[in-house]
User: Fold Kazal-like domain-containing protein from Mytilus galloprovincialis.
Amino acid sequence: MICSGVNLAYVGTCIISCSKEYLPVCGIDGQTYYNKCYLKAVGVACAYDGKCVQQCPSEYNIVCGTDGLLYVNDCHRKMNGVGLADMSLCKEKCSLELVPVCGVDGRTYDNDCIRQAAGVDVISQGECPKCPSTMNPVCGADGKTYDNDCWLKEAGISFHHQGECCKGYKPVCGVNNRTFNNECELNLQGIVKQYDGVCLAK
Assistant:
């Protein structure tokens, strides 16, 4: 909602008596004012009703506010109009205990309290995975297909072959007269298919 314009009351020094009612407005200077009266008093035009919305960097550098709450970085603290305080004021709010949680932002937080202070939802307990989301399937020795080599290593599984794991039982006979569970396994061995089905004894 856009603020309405201000009409000139009279020429001369203004006598200002603003109410203490908290109805924040954002000035064109990017500052949040207590209400429209305070905004007018300093001669700043109104950008919109409500607190100013700023874009803060996503860097993770926890700071303590004078309200006793933790903020993900100094920009978030300033955006909430809170003074900077010594970390000892906030220590009672969040312990320094290391029980990692993974936030939806892909960052690992030291504990759930610090994640909440950052205003980020949780995706899982423990550290966030360090692997990319690129698809380059690999088959593990456990017979499962992993999105890429990194995820395979994260799981602690040995590499079997590049590409998806072969699934299902549809036997084929290779020219070496050996039966394979399916054509996929035959191709992985570099064997030419002789015919579908189990190899006949010779």
